[in-house]
Automatic annotation (TrEMBL):
Keywords: Copper, Disulfide bond, Metal-binding, Oxidoreductase, TPQ
Enzyme class: oxidoreductase
Cofactor: how and how many bound: Contains 1 topaquinone per subunit.
Pfam families found in the cross-reference section: Cu_amine_oxid, Cu_amine_oxidN3
EC number from the UniProt entry: 1.4.3.-
Matches recorded under PROSITE patterns: COPPER_AMINE_OXID_2
Post-translational modification: Topaquinone (TPQ) is generated by copper-dependent autoxidation of a specific tyrosyl residue.
Family indicated by similarity: Belongs to the copper/topaquinone oxidase family.
Species classification: Eukaryota, Viridiplantae, Streptophyta, Embryophyta, Tracheophyta
Residue ranges of every copy of the Copper amine oxidase catalytic domain listed in the record: 137-199, 203-467
Copper amine oxidase N3-terminal domain span: 2-97
Domain of life: Eukaryota
Protein name: Amine oxidase
Amino acid sequence: MLNVEEQVAVLALPFKYAPFLESVNKRGLALRDVVCGTFAIGWFGEKQDKRLVKMQCFVTGETVNLYMRPIEGITIVADMEAVEIVEYEDRVVIPVPAAAGTEYRASRQLPPYGPRGKPVVVTQPEGKGFTFEGNVVRGYLSELFVPYMDPSEEWYFKTYFDIGEYGFGPYSSSLKAGIDCPHNAEYMDGYYANGAGSPFCCVTEEVSLVVRTVANSGNYDYVFDWEFKTSGSIKLSAGRTGTLEVRATDYTNAEQMIGDQHGTLVAPNTIGVFHDHFATYHLDLDVDGPENSFVKANLRTVRAEGCTTPRKSYWTVVSETAKTEADARIAHNEGPRASFFCESRRKTRLGNAVGYRLIRSGAAATALMSEEDYPQKRADYTKKGLWVTPYHKSEKWPSGVYVDMSHGEDNLAVWSMRNRSIENTDIVVWYTIGVHHVPSQEDFPLMPMLNMGFELRPYNFFEHNPVIGTQPFGKH
Ligand SMILES: [Cu+2]
């Protein structure tokens, strides 16, 4: 992992490096307006004996939206141990996109303004309806793989493992009442090595209970919600907002762009590059105790032969309990299937196995890079949407422990090759929600929030609908 301190140390290097100063000068930019960022270099088959990182620089000047103003065409490689630039190339000069139109702060917008929203007030006249009492579910977001689809010199390596390479903890945002969470929310502090604690998690009631954290991953802001409903359902969502990662270009109109493209023209001289978001959740669900099994509820069409009615067909559920890991590696496009669920050996009074099911949402993209491509090897678990492993305390992060410059030798797909038994044991479900992001002009200069998620829902867990019998609001 790249820690904050070592990234800060190498980020000072370009400003003392003569060839870079010359590149800035050549482009007619003011050095005081230039800021740089560090980018994990990945692994592309080469032998590595140094901890290297690449840098890309941006121009601020009249805007705070520096991500919309990349300085293109320059490759800077730094050695993080030696804290020195070890490779530098200024390959091509491409215009830096203009600052005009990139401002997103409400206070800096100019007329004509859009319609004004009416105030919304959330009140709980009788106080909060919850108390904190230990853990409910052991689950967390374990990796976020974001590969970009531009194979050019300055972009090919941009295949981020946001959690394994950078971590989300150090980049968690302090949450502000009324902006990040409603006014009735309660906050919890987070603590990280090498970082000061700050409110990083809020809990709020909006009929259901929502636990929210926000992380800034470079240009992206991610909003992670766990919504606990009174029905026993848990909705997990990963919202994305912030700014696109854009590439500067000579193009000023989409009609000039012909041939194989790697993005959408979202502003003059600005291409929003195609990419994916694969968010992998580690879900250690203990449904009525740790010993669970994973069941696939497959739907099968049956021809209604020999029936006395005119119907020709119907579908039915053919359940299949996964015995080993291989039985539970599931691609998102496999089906048709009613659901997957984890069940315990305990039964309801009616004799159904007690369980929780996982309901997929529309965010079911799977990796489209070829299997021999290096970023894909490092994240080959993204070829499947769901994996089940027996719980093992060292298997926490699906892309491995040492993700920066990893070769894909220690990851979920590798562990799962042992094909261990997963029946009636403490199992972990690894579920990946995926989106292929084809940017559009609405994503500029700041993207509206896009949510992707899934739901964990009781499946014969209760004897009947648990909401029946709860008192309506305000009734005593
Ligand atoms: Cu995106």
